[in-house]
């Protein structure tokens, strides 16, 4: 089936404050994503929101999924907490996600 990835950031209340879903379009022979396109997946984001709130997760995460071609059902392959794979692919995406998380640094 088709492979997807959702990069997201949760706040301290475990609410998703921003996310980026991509459909993987080109994979190398080692299974790494070389190319993808941004896609809208509101139902998937809503279900992930429930999952991350139940786990009381705060911070970034990346969720790898595959769509079952017969049932059209999305299945989670893995969740990588604390890691966002596709933020660096596009500077504007990185700016969007990072603008929502304002570090509190006192000098």
Structure, explained:
A hairpin with a 6-residue loop joins strand 4 (59-67) and strand 5 (74-81). Mean pLDDT is 80; it is low at 89-96 and 103-107. It is built from 2 helices and 5 strands. It starts with a strand and ends in a 7-residue tail after the last helix. The radius of gyration is 14 Å and the shape is globular. With 107 residues, it is an alpha+beta fold. The protein has helices spanning 42-54, 91-100; strands at residues 3-10, 16-27, 33-38, 59-67, 74-81. Strands 3-2-1-4-5 form a 5-stranded antiparallel β-sheet.
Which regions are unreliable across 5 or more consecutive residues at pLDDT < 50? Answer: 89-96, 103-107
Radius of gyration: 14 Å
- Quick check: average pLDDT? 80
Indicate the overall shape: globular
Q: What summary fits the major beta sheet? A: 5 strands, antiparallel
Strand content: 35-45%
Count of runs of 4 or more consecutive helical residues: 2
How far is the N terminus from the C terminus? Answer: 50 Å
Percent of residues in helices comes to 10-25%
The topology string of helices and strands comes to EEEHEEH
Number of strands: 5
Helix/strand structural class = alpha+beta
Task: Provide the spatial order of strands within the biggest beta sheet.
Answer: 3-2-1-4-5
């Amino acid at each position: 089936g088709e492979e997807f990835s959702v990069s997201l950031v949760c706040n301290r209340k475990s609410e998703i404050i921003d996310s980026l879903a991509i459909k993987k379009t080109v994979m190398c022979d080692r299974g790494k994503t070389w190319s993808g396109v941004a896609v809208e997946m509101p139902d998937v984001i809503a279900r992930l929101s429930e999952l991350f709130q139940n786990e009381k997760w705060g911070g970034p995460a990346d969720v790898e999924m595959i769509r079952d071609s017969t049932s059209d059902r999305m299945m989670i392959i893995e969740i990588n907490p604390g890691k966002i794979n596709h933020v660096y692919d596009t500077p504007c995406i990185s700016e969007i996600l990072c603008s929502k998380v304002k570090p509190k640094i006192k000098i």
